[in-house]
């Protein structure tokens, strides 16, 4: 069944189970939050990555990605001047079927997407392989002095692992969006294994030559 919900286009990708803090200062999005607070639970909106254009500016948004993720309100702090600080968490993927421009902010007709494991045998084989590849990727980040990261308790459940790894990798938006759009966890884990191998090779090439500036740059997952 389709549902019409407010949309928040961003230059990033949100995954189910991942926290997303937002500072709301534009009037149209202040109105979006006020409308949500006046409405029933669950209070949520759709986060969709911008394919072309920008959220603000003369040209504005000219295209959005088709697959997004709902963001559910967890905490709301209202400032005296009308701004909001939000803490949201990704809830469910959806397919964007249409846009509604009748309000100050965009709304979209969305179709929820089920969370499937996919080929269970393939997912079961992929879990330990992706866990090992992810730890190797984090270790390689650490060797260049960019981060000191450990992942002692990675989940064994395929869907949870697939989204944790997707949210943690430092890759381009197009790669992040492609992972969100994978039809099931088995497919996402397979794509992540290939991405992790690629990114680890690239990091090792960077660290094979002197890179003082890189080693002194703090790691930023954003």
Task: Describe the model.
The chain contains six helices and seven strands; from the N terminus they run E-E-H-E-E-E-E-E-H-H-H-H-H. It is of the alpha+beta class and 222 residues long. Strands 1-3-5-6-7 form a five-stranded mixed beta barrel. A hairpin with a 7-residue loop joins strand 3 (44-53) and strand 4. It starts with a strand and ends in a 7-residue tail after the last helix. Mean pLDDT is 88; it is low at 209-222.
Properties at a glance:
222 residues, alpha+beta, Archaeosine Trna-guanine Transglycosylase, Chain: A, domain 4, 2 domains, five-stranded mixed barrel, globular
Which class of secondary structure composition applies to the elements? alpha+beta
| CATH class wording of the largest domain | Mainly Beta
CATH architecture of the largest domain: Roll
Task: Report the sheet with the most strands, covering strand number, pairing sense and barrel closure.
Answer: 5 strands, mixed, barrel
The number of helices is 6
The total number of structural domains is: 2
Please give the share of residues in helix. 25-40%
Distance between the termini: 34 Å
Q: What coarse outline follows from CA principal-axis ratios?
A: globular
Average pLDDT: 88
């Amino acid at each position: 069944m389709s549902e019409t919900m407010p949309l928040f286009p961003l230059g990033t990708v949100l995954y189910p189970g991942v926290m997303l803090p937002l500072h709301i200062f534009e009037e149209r999005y202040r109105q979006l939050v006020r409308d949500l607070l006046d409405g029933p639970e669950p209070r949520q909106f759709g986060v969709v990555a911008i394919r072309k254009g920008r959220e603000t500016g003369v040209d504005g948004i000219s295209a959005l990605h088709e697959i997004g993720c709902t963001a559910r309100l967890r905490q709301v702090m209202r400032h005296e001047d009308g701004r909001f600080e939000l803490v949201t968490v990704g809830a469910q993927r959806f397919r964007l079927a249409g846009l509604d421009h009748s309000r100050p902010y965009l709304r979209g007709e969305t179709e929820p997407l089920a969370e499937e494991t996919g080929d269970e045998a393939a997912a079961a084989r992929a879990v330990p392989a992706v866990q090992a590849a992810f730890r190797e990727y984090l270790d390689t980040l650490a060797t260049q002095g960019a981060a000191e990261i450990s992942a002692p308790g990675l989940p064994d459940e395929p869907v949870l692992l697939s989204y944790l790894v997707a949210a943690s990798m430092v890759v381009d938006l197009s790669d992040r969006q492609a992972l969100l759009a994978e039809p099931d966890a088995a497919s996402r884990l397979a794509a992540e294994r290939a991405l992790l191998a690629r990114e680890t090779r690239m990091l090792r090439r960077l660290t094979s030559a002197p890179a003082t500036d890189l080693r002194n740059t703090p790691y930023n997952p954003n």
